[in-house]
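The following block was generated as part of the benchmark described in Methods. Ligand: 2-OXO-4-methylpentanoic acid.
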Amino acid sequence: MQLKILPQTDSKEKISDESQLAFGTQFTDRMFLMEFDREKGWHSARIQPYGPLSLDPAATVLHYSQEIFEGLKAFRRADGSIALFRPKDNISRFNRSAKRMCKPEVDEDFLLESLLELIRLEADWVPKSEGTSLYIRPTMISSEAFLGVRPADQYLCYIILSPVGAYYKGGIAPVKIWISDHYVRAAHGGTGEAKTGGNYAASLMAAKEAAENGYDQVLWLDAREKKYVEEVGSMNMVFLYDDKIVTSPLGGTVLDGITRRSTLKLLADMGYQIEERAMSVDEVMEGAKNGRLKEAFGTGTAVVISPVGSLCYQGNFVQLGKGETGELTMKLYKQLTDIQYGRQPDRYDWVVNL
Ligand code: COI
């Protein structure tokens, strides 16, 4: 398939003070788009001016949520060059999500090449300041106008770009986590490991409950027993328990996070023993009280590494240490961002230079 570059006339004004960059509020001038139907397969790939999509009100995505997305980032280095972090891993997860949601897969090499071309054209939008990046959002929606329930015959796949600052307003500041004992995010056999919008829509009620109680994010327990910690909606969770690293295993209900994988690799190389095992909420709460749980942090593309300062479960509040960012959390944040911003060599072949 050939990628067409359509003419671009307008250019939006960029935020000149990069300290004002929020998460996902501003979008660049161009977007990538391609279409699918059963006869032609994927076709009409183009880079075009960013703008609204034209969708039939009966488009199945609007009714039955046949939607998937990804999140990855491009970073501006000190020498002005631009690098992407593990884009191939995101694109292959995009295809795994597509399969789970009965959607057509994409040609991974073609999507990566198209993405790189889009970023070349939008290079001026990649911010320069520490902690900022260009957030990349590949998305696929079912676009066929039809009200029956079955996999659609038509799809759109598009990529939009957004210059971003920190996901949480406080930057790398400890977050307060609410553990839900009522709502669940994902059940076995469900769509928990797919990056599909419905998982996030389903999480909003618990997030509202958390916010009403003064908490930033929800930590989900497993759906079967409501006993084991799984993940926070926008990040995987990692615990420093005694001197070991503990994180939930990927059993189909937890997102296979690229930042999760990267941090586990960095921690293993620092010499930590990694335990991917079910960890009960009681163990977490007890550990926080008796000091065995030394640090906890979330990992995700948007949040990077997010320290957890306190937790609340069934009315019981516990603080981790002094409620401040832990030493290991900070070290890991530095190691990861040093690789992303090119301040340290990339020993893992994670970075794709533009
Ligand atoms: C990401 O970290 O890129 C995500 O997709 C989380 C998002 C829902 C903000």
